[in-house]
Write a structure and sequence with these properties.
alpha/beta, six-stranded mixed sheet, about 40% helix, globular
């Protein structure tokens, strides 16, 4: 049996302020650091020992992973970082308050921007300072690869190939038994959609809680056989509801 843990980063500063974040590289809040530590304790108490870790280029995911590995005494394991695990790019919405945006455009429209499968927010202008092209970490990417906005479908199209062509082959070739992917709500939703064959309509309702380990168990051929959250069910539901309510007035 192989086990893969998907971990959404802890609360970020902009999560706390209820802002659209996307590719903006904001830090963890104090609560987010505590959540990451608790996530690490949960994994350690459940006997997880990872062979390798994967994360995005964004510090809120990287720092969540660092806290988890430190608590688990696994700071030494290899870590791979990829922009393909970055959060969905929210285009012109990045930095805007979700509640204020819902009051202006309506909750239904904000839900479409946040959760619809194939509708992306309005893109950034090419000269916008928020354009990832101005960030040195993306220098090796082509203009086609760098988004100015994304839908969940766009996020699926970059995250799922990373899962299929990089992560799964490494698990098989190196005979890894347990790995962790610390990333973001939408990049992880993309992978979950693929693994569980969730429909385009149903994926809208999936809300991932911050820093709660989500475990997938696979057979030796990397076919999923079981998935579950680790932690108190009531607390997990509370966190899921909080994510769902972010786009309301």
């Amino acid at each position: 049996m192989k086990r893969v843990v998907l971990l959404r980063h802890g609360e970020s500063v902009w999560n706390k302020e209820n802002r659209f974040t996307g590719w903006t590289d904001v830090d963890l809040s104090e609560t987010g650091v505590k959540e990451a530590i608790e996530g690490g304790k949960t994994l350690k108490n459940n006997g997880f020992i990872f062979d390798k870790a994967y994360t995005s280029y964004l510090k809120r995911a990287v720092k969540t992973l660092n806290q988890v590995l430190d608590i688990m005494d696994l700071d030494w394991i290899p870590v791979a970082k990829s922009w393909r695990l970055n959060e969905k790019h929210y285009g012109m919405l990045q930095g805007l308050n979700k509640t204020e945006t819902a009051a202006k455009y309506g909750e239904d429209q904000v839900k479409i921007w946040r959760r619809s499968y194939d509708i992306a927010p309005a893109p950034l202008e090419a000269g916008d300072s928020r354009n990832p092209r101005t960030d040195v970490r993306y220098n090796s990417l082509t203009d086609k690869e760098i988004p100015l906005t994304e839908s969940l479908l766009d996020t699926v199209n970059r995250a799922v190939p990373y899962w299929e062509n990089v992560i799964v082959p490494e698990i098989k070739q190196n005979n890894y038994n347990q790995i962790i992917i610390a990333a973001h709500g939408n990049s992880l939703r993309a992978i979950i959609k693929f693994l569980k064959n969730i429909s385009d309509e149903e994926i809208v309702s999936l809300n991932l809680p911050t820093a709660v380990p989500y475990v997938f168990e696979f057979d030796d051929n990397m076919k999923p056989v079981k998935d579950y959250f680790l932690g108190d069910p009531e607390e997990i539901k509370r966190k899921m509801d909080a994510v769902a309510n972010q786009g309301k007035k």
